[in-house]
């Protein structure tokens, strides 16, 4: 190495270092401890992190480029719609809502980085996709106390007063689904049922529901574990056929459900198939599995479908279609909207009790009981339970808006009421 | 990290005459070190964490560069060894409170054992690695990723399954590397601030050691194997032994990176240790520069900071739109940029980014870097 | 027994699709000694063109355009990237194909977005029943198409001047060049052929029983890696056999997973790699790969 080269390199390094130092210093003028908890702001309301006299900042950690892109897109757009409408109506507590969205693409590193970035700036998170990532920052959520509404329905998320699951969890949903199969689809005690499920939180939580039902009702569960990359369910159907199952539960993605139903139908395996809410998307009605889906597929979901005639769904469907004419109306829209309105309701109640700090919002949420967001009734008084034990059973329906219509109205099965998590 | 930038590139033969002016060089060295040391007093946690991800990536990339860059052994299984290190540390240090296997060893020892375990894993695989060459080796190591993922998801008692397991925080000589606040000069030090220094120490130590290896006799032997395995053998280099040792060493670097990452994450999740991570490490060493420590570090910083910066400043960047508005999202923009950077570096900048500065100042060709070596 | 036969037939048919992908992979390796990690994007590109066009111009024309499109993408990669590389290290070039793959897959998935695109194939979900065994028409079509293409390819490889040039280039590039073979054309042709084969594979990966083309379809290319390697990277026969082994292994491991629970569930994806490692332990150059002779 020559001196000239060395100098140049040193100079470059020094320049980079200087820029970094300046950026660092400018980015954070003082890190010295200064918690602004409990300042009284406009209107005599106590405020904390993420709240000024004019705005309330909320965060959304979503996945718009990874495996849950379909869900993430609908949820995020629904929440942005809520923020827009709320602000147009004057905001909450005299303050405008601001939603900062970070797309982590289902990458743990980006998800954790997104939380670290937004946490010091926002009051709470209206969305957090990916239960493994929620789990990975759970310790910090318990210390920082922002309200987090994850877009996942896994029972492993229960138990924290700051992470609140909206609607029934996958295990409850599956119990209600099997209850439906037994009451209305002719599955009897002693029958075998198949359960095709994803490796991971979602599938395994759902499986615990079907195992519980099996114990209660003397059923046998034939398990088939799959991965999100499996798209062809031929081998699974062959195995389930061999086992002689009378019905199939699927806790996977929409593609796997379409393949499963398509293969079963084509092979003359006429058994009812029911999926969890994440196992259906209206986009499937454009594929050739559509007739089979309409004929023998059902979905258990925590909320009314977007195509329902009730007031909440029809208004949301209209507004959403007007705001995003090119995008599909699916149940992710409902999920996003429900989370946003829940957050909004908690903020309103926190405002009434003049405490818009994180603690204030957490406390306000605990007072919400028998509250109807337009898609189902929620109850947030117990952090150890999901906000609802209800499931609506829907079926794919080309004619309906949003591609699904209700088969059985919201109902809590007896089994779901008696279900105790170990 | 900029202090590492200032190190001379290790591909310079140690015998080359060096006339240096100690003044400016020393000055920059000190400035760089001071800067890195004071950063935690100013940067917010987001940037510290980003820096820590980059440091861990740099350690892992140095290991991969020893193997792939300097010795010419293509490995796509690096993520597996990171996982071994991360989960190994958890298992050695965990006390079993969460119902998962834990030996409850002191965390400092667990850290060393985690690194050692990764090395052993590398050693176990090296008989297979020793038989294979080039593309065969690359794709055979890909099998490690799939095996790793399968075990991480299924060996529930050890790994916690899909939701991963908590990482016990490091405790060295009474200093807790966790979120318990430590006030230093009025600035509260949480986990990121404390780990920052640990990361710096580990990176510096790892970098210096690797530089020593590369510049010494082993380094020349490794390059000889890369450039011409048979000729190297003929000249008396114990090829098989070297290849196996480099595989083990590289796995240990990956294990160390895994341990550090686990501490930064505070929880390990299996999703992270997939194929994409392995590909990212390959991208790092190619973008930065094959076969050198500084190359690995520069590449690691580039690849791991790029998406973070783009996401953070997505609002103010042209062409990149905020998530949810329908344009090119920051995540996609980062992928475009890093894919393009990878191709561009291979085509137009053989030797990687570290050669950029070197090239401009002097037109003499350097030692053959990996890109000019012959695989045969 | 019925289940076994069904699983076996399915495995063979999926295996023949994997063989198509692996064949493209091997062709590129033979012509240029580069491991092409961008194969996933070729697959996705071909499938995407077919899926987008089929409603307007009908399925068969769309398929032909799709094949041509993927061949063009392959050729473009060769022309714009591979040819510009001045170094000699083929593993560096292999890493560059990772960059190409990231670029193309990012772009294509952005276009596909959250949709599931149907390809509009004529087979639908009809099944063939032979006694108690049922198999989808698409699977039979896949097997026949793959068989036909592979045979045609092997014949071309043996008897056409392109095939001879290609084998000569694979044997010894320098000598071939001295004999007047244009290496550029050989490698351009190899990339185009690989693209076309990948497009056909993409078709059969997106028809019934899978719902359609979507962002994850490209991951199927990962199955072709073990297929190409265990058969031997420089052997076309190896690609065929490797593809079949991977397909059958995967199908059986999935179908009998309830009997193999001690290995953990969800074995289907892992099994091909385990078989690959086992074979490589015995034969480091794959089943049919030529053992590299050292030239000093």
UniProtKB/TrEMBL annotation, chain A:
The keyword Thylakoid does not apply. Pfam families: Peripla_BP_6 (PF13458). PROSITE patterns: PROKAR_LIPOPROTEIN. This is ABC transporter substrate-binding protein. Belongs to the leucine-binding protein family. Residues 1-25 form the signal peptide. InterPro entries: Leu-bd, Peripla_BP_I. It comes from Streptomyces mesophilus. Residues 55-384 form the Leucine-binding protein domain. The keyword Signal applies. Keywords: Signal. It comes from the Bacteria.
From TrEMBL, chain B:
Keywords: Cell membrane, Membrane, Transmembrane, Transmembrane helix. Pfam families: BPD_transp_2. It is found in: Cell membrane. GO terms for cellular component: plasma membrane. The chain crosses the membrane at residues 26-43, 49-67, 79-96, 108-128, 135-153, 195-214, 244-265, 281-306, 336-358. GO terms for molecular function: branched-chain amino acid transmembrane transporter activity. It comes from the Bacteria. The keyword DNA-binding does not apply. It is a multi-pass membrane protein. This is Branched-chain amino acid ABC transporter permease. It comes from Streptomyces mesophilus.
From TrEMBL, chain C:
It holds the Pfam family BPD_transp_2. Signal peptide: none annotated. GO terms for cellular component: plasma membrane. GO terms for biological process: amino acid transport. It comes from the Bacteria. One of its GO terms (molecular function) is transmembrane transporter activity. The chain crosses the membrane at residues 12-29, 59-80, 92-113, 133-157, 188-208, 270-290. Keywords: Amino-acid transport, Cell membrane, Membrane, Transmembrane, Transmembrane helix, Transport. It is found in: Cell membrane. It is a multi-pass membrane protein. The keyword Transmembrane helix applies. Belongs to the binding-protein-dependent transport system permease family. LivHM subfamily. This is Branched-chain amino acid ABC transporter permease. It comes from Streptomyces mesophilus. The lineage of its organism: Bacteria, Bacillati, Actinomycetota, Actinomycetes, Kitasatosporales.
